[in-house]
What we know:
4 helices
Amino acid sequence: GGLLRARRGGGDGPPDDERAKEIEEELRKMEETETTPLKDPRAEVDDGEGFLRDFIRGKKWKSDSGLAFTHDFESDEEEVERAEEFESRYNFRFEEEGGGQIVSYARGGNDTVRKTDDKRKQEREKRRERKRKEKEKKEEEERLRKEEK
């Protein structure tokens, strides 16, 4: 079920006739005394007092079939038990085995997605290779000149 459950008849209060008389008396007193008008915070009702008077006189809180609705407290008890169990686990988490240790994981490793930035290293290697080739070419030219002489 939902939050509300139908309940038939009875109740702990006075009989309906006595209660109706009390309500009528209260409504008459409300009409006689000038009070500040009731204002609807959501602006859904224009005449707040008229709405309240009609609501009470018509007993609109009751359904047409004569059923009164009450809250289902059994589901609340289950919810409270679940909440208490969670709170207990949370409060005593450090007293459990291994609860006082913070779990950590090692950094590094080759399993990262991050691309290694070795562009500078590659540029240095290229420059060394170019210098080595220039040096070899120069030495070759010098060797050829010596042979010509």
